[in-house]
Structures are given as C-alpha cells and as structure tokens.
Amino acid sequence: MRFVFAVPALASAFLIALGPAAAQEWRSTGRGEGARAFFAKGGRPAGVQVACLSGGRLEITAAGNGARFPADRPVTLVLSVDGTAFSGEARVEPEAAGGGSRFVRVAEAGEAATLLAALKRGRGVEVSSPAGFMRLPLAGSGRALGALAPSCAGP
C-alpha cells in the first residue's frame, strides 16, 4: 500500500522541482528601438523573437535547427497565427552562439501592426523556415508584446 502512494508522491516532487527550469513563456526586454519580446524555454530565448525597429517596423528572428544555410540567397519565413499566414523574404544570419543559421525578416509598418495584433491575441503560432517548422503557444504573448507598444507599431 505504501508503494502505491510513494510513486505518485515522487513523481509530483520531481515535476515540482522541474517547474521553473522547464517553464515555457513569453518575455520582453529593453526599451525603445531594439526592445524585444521572445518565446523562452527554461529561461532562455527559444524559437522566435520580435524586435522593434524605427518607423514602426518589426524584426522577426526565427531560430534554426543547428544546420548552416547559405547567406547569399533570400529565403522565406512564414508566421502562421491561428491559421492566418504572414509571409515574407528573410535573410540568413549565423546564430549568435555559432554553429547554425537563423532567419531574420523585417515587416514594414502596415504589416507589422497587423502581425503584432495577431500575435498578441492569438492562441498559437507556427513558424516555418528552411530549417523546418515549430509550433509555439501564444499564452502570455499579449503582455510581453504589449510591453513593446511604446516602441512598436500596432494596437
């Protein structure tokens, strides 16, 4: 009888201990031009980042998969928020930590406002790049992206 109780208790203790380290959430940092919001996993940026640029533009950066892609040709980066696609040409850059490539797209002011509003209110986003695709939840994105409002276009 004690064994039946001990296994669930140990499993619960393990999950509680993992809680903060395994957390997935949207965060924001910075002020003014260069302020950014990003999806974080285990406290570190993971997946996609949105940064403010001058003129109400947004810079969207999608992480790669560790592979290197040629930087001499344009690629397409697509963010699909609850089934509505925002697609555009992106450039390939080396990942900051080295090793692979990431994909960077600039959304002009008109599209930026629409995209920002969709990300703030959406339930999920699918990010597609030459490295593949990832699905991320948007729970908490409203607050993180809302912190960018003084610097970025959009509602």
Q: How would you state the average pLDDT, rounded?
A: 81
Helix and strand sequence: HEEEEEEEHEEH
> Which value, in Å, is the CA radius of gyration?
18 Å
Which structural category fits the helices and strands? alpha+beta
Straight-line N-to-C gap:
58 Å
Give the neighbour order of strands across the main sheet: 1-2-3-4-7-6-5-8-9
CATH architecture: Sandwich
CATH class bucket: Mainly Beta
| Main pleated sheet | 9 strands, antiparallel
Question: How many independent structural domains?
Answer: 1
Portion of residues within helices: 10-25%
DSSP strand tally: 9
Shape: globular
Beta content: 35-45%
List the total number of helices. 3
Uncertain segments of ≥5 residues (pLDDT<50)?
Answer: 1-21
Provide the CATH topology.
Immunoglobulin-like
Layout of strands and helices, then pairs:
Layout: H1 2-18, E1 24-29, E2 36-41, E3 44-52, E4 58-62, E5 75-81, E6 84-94, E7 101-107, H2 109-121, E8 124-129, E9 132-137, H3 141-146
Antiparallel strand pairs: 1-2, 2-3, 3-4, 4-7, 5-6, 5-8, 6-7, 8-9
